[in-house]
Amino acid sequence: MLGVRLPPGLPFIFEIMAKSKKKKKKKKSAAPAQAATDQPQAVAVAVAESKVPKKRKAVAKPSVKERTSGTIDTISQFLREVRIELSKVTWPTRKDTIASTSVVLVIVILIAIYLGIVDLGLSRLMRILLN
Predict the structure, then answer these.
(1) pLDDT computed for residue 5 by the predictor
(2) 85 and 103 both lie in a single domain
(3) pLDDT single digits (tens) 78-118
(4) Using an 8 Å Cβ cutoff, are 48 and 33 in contact?
(5) Could you say which of 37, 48, 53, 92 would form a disulfide bridge with 96 (CB–CB 3.0 to 4.6 Å)?
(6) Residue 82 sits in which domain range?
(7) In the predicted model, is pLDDT for residue 131 greater than 90?
(8) Does residue 57 form part of some domain?
């Protein structure tokens, strides 16, 4: 992605993403059970009975301090990279900036004059047609 990093999202977004990953895993585990329905009933029952649910191990959630410290580290890394990228930018000189600004102002003034003349002509035309 051209070496540009996006800032990290808010912590609550990570929790939502983790929940959606769990749902996807559940859907994937449901797929073999659906494939078993294609087999004869006796085999499908045997397959369903052979799968004994495993007990889940308790996983310690990271504390708020750990989550925020990781977020702060990624934000500081992002800002360092922004500073490095901005140092690579070729900024225009004062003379170039003044020249391009004056061109823009002249074009805006010319377009404003043109639209004013067209508006004036159309309003007179409408006045003539309506009277």
Answers:
(1) 73
(2) no
(3) 999 999 999 999 989 999 999 999 999 999 999 999 999 99
(4) yes
(5) 92
(6) 1-52+63-89
(7) no
(8) no
